[in-house]
Design goal:
The chain is of the alpha+beta class. It has three domains: about 110 residues, DNA Polymerase III, subunit A, domain 2 (DNA Polymerase III, Chain A, domain 2), CATH 3.10.150; about 120 residues, DNA Polymerase III, Chain A, domain 2 (Roll); about 120 residues, DNA Polymerase III, subunit A, domain 2 (DNA Polymerase III, Chain A, domain 2, Roll), CATH 3.10.150.10. The chain has six helices and 26 strands. The strands form three sheets. The chain has a 13-stranded antiparallel beta sheet. Strand 12 and strand 13 form a beta hairpin. Helix 3 crosses helix 4. It starts with a strand and ends in a 5-residue tail after the last strand.
Length: about 375
Amino acid sequence: MKFFCKQTDLSEAINMVMKAINRNSTVKIVEGILIESGDNKIKLTGYDLETGIEAEVAADITEEGSVVVESKIFNDIIKKLPDENIDIKVDDRFQVSINSGSVNFTIKGMDSEPYPKIPSVETENKIEISQKMFKNMITHTSFAVSTDTTRAKLTGLNLISDGHNLTLVAIDGFRMALNREQIGDDFPKMNYIIPGKSLNELSKILNDNDSDVVVYHSSNQILFDLGDVRLISRLIPGDFVNFDSIIVKNPKTVMEISRKNLLDSIDRAALLIMTDERRCPVSLAMPDSSTLLVSANTETGGHKEDIDISVEGDLIDIDFNAKYFIDALRNIDDEKIRIEFNGSQGPCIIKPVDGDKYIFLILPIRR
């Protein structure tokens, strides 16, 4: 194999595919990058057996072929080369020669034949989503994905289309994050569980503009196509948690409050909480219908602070994990929010004052 390409283009493509490489895999060859050449381009692939990323680079091909290179050393070398054309050659023994100007490296490559094939995805089922919108949806929900691998479904996010709205939901057993966007009429219906790791890596690739990502989906795989970059992920089988059933429909207490004031107050209280253990919560109490008392008491010290609110219904006194509240509040852009409670033992719901574009649910800590 022999080709020429630009250093900047190749380095950018390597950065993309590195996101899908597990350097501690039991399958050693997938710790490398697969390089294939043909049709005036090279294709780089990273694949951890769950998520695959392919990136294409324009190149002058003088001899087609393929090779697998050790990902870290190849990335490190390409990053350090001068910003000019690179000449890469691979011989019959998979020795890789990298030349740029007066700089020359030789590294050992591997035969690409044992490299596992990324599953193909049928292109019949196709949808298009704004990259900026979907990136925001992932950012505002993925923090609530479970890391408990014994609960496989909760390690993913539930992507749902009812034909008019696109909804993304994450639940870790203690909290829920939901984001919903209107997508117009006649949008294809779907209901899939996508691994949280795959969507987190996708969010790093998506652009902050209104160009679309094309999504192809089948019963067990999903493909996100950005043109020169594609991410393919397996889907988690089964049905997601019925999250509608845990959202309180008739709350006993409804509070409206400044998002920033509440976030700043809980953030200050959390300074005294050196651990997120259940024994160190932040307390929210309503001495009257216009005041919220935020407090924390730990071995380090104590904190108390009043915030102006408006309340309808019962006054409450309830404890929460401070980190969960901070995570939710930092992923809201509204100045004022609505928080619903159902007694001191039930979950609280954080949502917009009007509508349900986002919903965050947090379970309380029992005293």
